[in-house]
Amino acid sequence: MLQDCPLPEAVRERLPDSLFTRHVYYFPRIGSTNAYARELAKKGGAEGTMVIAEEQTKGQGRMGRQWYSPAYHNLLFSIILRPAFSIDRVFSLTMLTALALVDAINNMTNVKALIKWPNDVYLKNKKMAGILTEFSANKKGVEYVVVGIGLNVNWDVTDKSGLNHLATSLVREIGHPISRIDLLVKILELLERYYWLLLKGQDRFIYKRWNELSMVIGKEVLVNFSNGRKKARVKRIAKNGALVIEDEDGKQSSIICGDLTVVFPSLPGS
């Protein structure tokens, strides 16, 4: 295990002028970084405030799923954002966060990480990171957004029964541990750069790259609904983050919220 704790002073030293290092909270153990960040946001917590934890006792992924992560191995953090835009643009923040994760991972490790709609990062068809975006809004628009990230870095997922065929980590794929501080700094650098582009309206790059790095474009998927599932082929990701699919009859439709199962081809001998 690599003992390089992402302490506030260590991150701030590397990124002294960053939006995300002005207010940093670090916890060896916490219920949930997203929950703590939400409470800070409700009390007026500044944009860019970051909550980092080594371990979460109530970590959650999307749709209330549990996010398991052993202490001192991975990256678990949440960030408060206060963009001045309407509710329909909130998904853009999930998109740019996923892009920052993938670009940071690919830059530091030379592996080929990809994005699985709507909020996961995959490597070799296994989940490596998840993003949980929560927000509050009023009639005027978005009040705050909390973006939470869980990224498997130096944890060998084979230690957790039942996850071996579903999840992976950087150490498992590249064969050696990497600095969590270096990786966090790279993620934050890219995240801030992409965030300012989004706020300036220079967001074509984000949507273009999100589609290029999508692991579901052109793939056959099972779309899970509350009342069943439907097989379809993914055509593209729209600018508002909607998944554009084509069903078996050739009819196209858009999905704003849902869950996907990618139909991977069987490997020889499997």
Question: What layout of secondary structure does this protein have?
Answer:
Layout: H1 8-14, E1 24-27, H2 33-42, E2 50-53, E3 75-81, H3 91-109, E4 114-116, E5 120-123, E6 126-138, E7 141-151, H4 170-174, H5 180-199, H6 204-212, E8 220-225, E9 228-237, E10 243-247, E11 252-255, E12 259-262
Parallel strand pairs: 1-2
Antiparallel strand pairs: 2-3, 3-7, 4-5, 5-6, 6-7, 8-9, 8-12, 9-10, 10-11
Helix pairs in contact: 3-5, 3-6
What is the rounded distance between the termini?
33 Å
Write down the overall geometry: globular
Count the strands?
12
Number of domains: 2
The unreliable regions are: none
Structural class comes to alpha+beta
Kindly provide the name of the CATH class of the largest domain.
Alpha Beta
Give me the Rg, rounded: 18 Å
Q: How many individual helices?
A: 6
The largest sheet has its strands arranged as: 1-2-3-7-6-5-4
Give the helix level as a range of percent: 25-40%
> Per DSSP, what share of the residues sits in E-state strands of 2 or more residues?
25-35%
Overall pLDDT, averaged? 89
User: CATH-wise, what's the superfamily of the largest domain?
Assistant: Bira Bifunctional Protein, Domain 2
Described by strand count, sense and barrel closure, the largest sheet is: 7 strands, mixed
CATH architecture type of the largest domain = 2-Layer Sandwich
Question: What does this molecule look like?
Answer:
The two termini are 33 Å apart. The protein is globular and about 55 Å long. By secondary structure, it is an alpha+beta fold. It has helices at 8-14, 33-42, 91-109, 170-174, 180-199, 204-212, and strands at residues 24-27, 50-53, 75-81, 114-116, 120-123, 126-138, 141-151, 220-225, 228-237, 243-247, 252-255, 259-262. α2 (33-42) links the parallel β1 (24-27) and β2 (50-53). The relative contact order is 0.14.
